[in-house]
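Dear colleagues,

As part of the handover before I leave the project, I'm documenting each prediction I ran so the next person doesn't have to rerun anything. This entry is a single chain, and its sequence is reproduced below.
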Amino acid sequence: MIFLSIIIPAFNEEKRIPNTLLNLLNYLSAKSYKWEIILVDDGSTDRTSEIAKEIIKNNSLTVIKNHLNQGKGYSVKRGVLSSKGKVLFFSDADLSASIEDLDKMLLWIDRGYDIVIGSRMLPESIIEVRQPLHRELMGKIFNLLVQSFVLKGFKDTQCGFKCFKRESALQVFSLQRLAGFAFDVEILYIAQKCGFKIKEQPVRWTNSPASKVHLLKGSLSMILELLKIRLYNWKGYYRF
């Protein structure tokens, strides 16, 4: 039985995906449990999928390709619902957070938490390379909006480094509706409504300069998605 499923959403990542997959393979080679990597190619126009298959040639890798670019939330959901592991973990394609921190997440899962999320904003978090100041400022404003209108209690909802027990993941992601970058807020909102036990864990994080998020358009889109979460909840879409 597969213990760990790693889901990687990717869009035009042919330059960064080799290093990410090699780091994952190096980390996983020392583990005794069975694992799988699911790469969800979100309509890439480059060789992201082909390069991934060249690096991992066995059935430990599954590549799922969206015919059109659908969004990070859509891709992560598709990967989660296609997974077979007892524990599910998703990371950004640049692996900005250290994969070694996954060991700590698995310890919290073993101690009874349903969901463990990486955080760059806790006192113990180690930021080795920071984002540009304007991106940090926009992130803080977005988090303030999240705390004010949607979801309280988390320092960092947007770190792409999250781990789930299978049962909690399937329940949460089956209710997820957002396809864009604010899906992280939505899944945590759903998880709280479901009563799942959530742990926020500090990570070691290095900013990758090749961000796929357009600052102005992306920020406006994410704010709109926060309003959609409130609307979807009012309409009863998050009832399990």
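Helices lie at 17-28, 48-55, 72-82, 102-110, 133-149, 166-175, 183-194, 215-234. The longest strand covers residues 35-42.

All the best with the project,
I.
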